Amino acid sequence: MRRWCTEEPTHFVLVGRREDTLRAISEDLVTRGCDGTEASIHVGAFRDSEEVAATVAGALEHGRPDIALVAFGSLPEQAVVSATASALTEALEVNGVWPALCAQLLFNALREEGAGRIVLLGSVAGDRGRRSNYAYGAAKSLLATFAAGLAHAAVGTGVSVSLVKPGPTDTPMTRGAGTRGRLAAPDDVARTIVAGVARKQPVIYAPPRWRVIMAIIRALPGPLFDRLDI
Amino acid sequence: MSPRSVALSGWGRWPQVEAELTEATTLDGIRGLVGLGAVSVRGAGRSYGDSSLGTRVLDMAHHTRMRSFDRDSGVAVVDAGATIEDLLRVFAPRGWLPAVTPGTRFVTVGGALASDVHGKNHHAAGSFSDHVLWFELLLGDGEVVRVSRESLPELFHATAGGMGLTGVILSVALQLIPVRSGRILQRSLKLPGIDATVAAIETNANWTYSAAWIDCQARGRSLGRSLLLLGEHDTDGGHDPAVNVRRPVAIPFVPPSGTLARPVVSAFNTLYHGRQRAVERTALVSYTSFFHPLDAIANWNLLYGKRGFLQYQFVTPAQAGADPLRRALALISQAPVPAPLAVLKAFGEANSNLLSFPLRGYTLAVDMPATAAALELCERLDRLVLDCGGRIYLSKDARMSPETFRACYPRWQEFEEIRARHGATGKFSTLQSTRLGLT
Ligand SMILES: Cc1cc2nc3c(=O)[nH]c(=O)nc-3n(C[C@H](O)[C@H](O)[C@H](O)COP(=O)(O)OP(=O)(O)OC[C@H]3O[C@@H](n4cnc5c(N)ncnc54)[C@H](O)[C@@H]3O)c2cc1C
Ligand SMILES: NC(=O)c1ccc[n+]([C@@H]2O[C@H](COP(=O)([O-])OP(=O)(O)OC[C@H]3O[C@@H](n4cnc5c(N)ncnc54)[C@H](OP(=O)(O)O)[C@@H]3O)[C@@H](O)[C@H]2O)c1
Fold first, then answer.
1. What is the ipTM of this complex?
2. How many structural domains does chain A have?
3. Which residue among B125, B198, B265, B279 is least enclosed by CB atoms within 10 Å?
């Protein structure tokens, strides 16, 4: 999901908690991108509201973005978060509360400019709670409602808000034990996101077929849903 | 980061093993894994046999980041998991291409260096490592060294072609070549037999790219009849290498073993021999259709069914002339083994790597299903190859004996000594290295 389009000269500002990773990604973007591609990095984490505010403010010092992508998150094992209070809290915060706060702070800054696009990474997991990952899913659905409300608030401000709902994708998040089923290729997901953002689509399913799949899953009657092992 | 139990195989899908596959994403992760004991390094798994297999496997295919590109000199530094396809996508539009590409664009740069792969231009440009300026290597003790011909010559010449047995290649600095066009001017010659084929390869040695598809089913006077494809970079036209033109078609299921032969034979024969009526033809073709025709079908290796297949590739020295080729083709065409097609090309001089495959002479590669009859045919071919001072390509091999290996690669002891000096003994091993008696 890190592979943004680099067909026109773009200045990337990368925000994250590990400097060496950010540096490697920025080299990658500059090397792959067309002439004129630039990348700066800002090291910061998202662990409490002060830190989130400081990180967003620091990122904005590099200039007001045309597009702000909020894509941090972590996929915990449901068994672990079910058993550990602190892990559950963290799962809800890092996937829901802190991205929502980021979005609000970004919106407040962009509204002054009267332009800009905010893109939040939700998930198909937020469309219906399932026993296998409802903590993560609940946080993502918080973000979905938040994004919808923010988009509503943004009407007439020149700022747009999009929520991306990827299906399971082959990234570091889904590697290792415990992932089942077929994973989408990050390039395909990225392409869908780029196209959706260009069209200012409010909700972007990626790959698009997930829009239909999730409509069906949402519509399944309870007794039938209960029997599914998902 | 955590290991996964998976069934792994090379491109030939034979043999298949259960392995613990780890996709270490960070340097510390790789170090930790190497610290545990013997590790096998794997790129895209496009080698045919067992050289990317083992019980504990490090998957380097996700290390695809690019580090830098010098627009003036054409030197690109990329992580070992970047593929030839990645290089084409990023650099071809700017007029730079990899100097050497194998017959598929889905190999990693690390794998290409470890096998020191060759392309259709070996006679003119040498092999992959000849265009590598330096690389970073993680050794058995976890130390990372930057290896060039000047800084650490013995590690350079042991690692290039060293089949992942000296350490983990982390990144590679490659000299790309400038081109004026992404298209290839292709000349194809239809040739009636092996003598004509070899003669035509020699008289057309001034072409940058050259390889012949041989119809292995032809016998008698037609033995070795072929289609020789010659290529030269076009001098103008767009830079699009056409990687995007068509998405590879995927084969959705594994057909039962044995169905292979007929469809494959007829498909390939129509494509490469029957199709061309004229004796000679010239055309402008895209880069990928010239270099990577098989990539148009994503997983054509499934065509050989559940049993899998193997590729036998050998080289015979130039001094021996066309005679060993004639005898090899006769053996292949007479064996009860469906081996429809082979690729023949001339190699230029060998480089100074300890285990690199190419040497001045002719190389022939042929696919066959993994059957007992095919293994027997390979044994006979082994003898023929060794008798004339040739060798067998490790990157395709899944079956040669330790004795054959030592006869093919007489510098194996030197290779072992260098591995011992740099802490690789017992640390980096593969199913292949164990089979070949390397420590
Ligand atoms: C259709 C097809 C056509 C081909 N045509 C040609 C051709 O024309 N010429 C040619 O020379 N070859 C050819 N090959 C073979 C292929 O180019 C080589 O096997 C190549 O090494 C595969 O690269 P890989 O990334 O898939 O490596 P793998 O198959 O995963 O590994 C190959 C070897 O490299 C080692 N290795 C991989 N990555 C690393 C790393 N990061 N550090 C250290 N060691 C590593 C492995 O241990 C193993 O020994 C062809 C293969 C196919 C499937
Ligand atoms: N992959 C999928 O199947 C999938 C499906 C639906 C939605 N998504 C969503 O897509 C987004 C991108 O995920 P991805 O798949 O690309 O996975 P990823 O590579 O693991 O990316 C997640 C990133 O979030 C960072 N992060 C996590 N917690 C953080 C914190 N507290 N502070 C700062 N950074 C933090 C991680 O940083 P470190 O590198 O430092 O750990 C990591 O770079 C996420 O929001 C994810 O929920 C993914």
1. 0.88
2. 1
3. B279
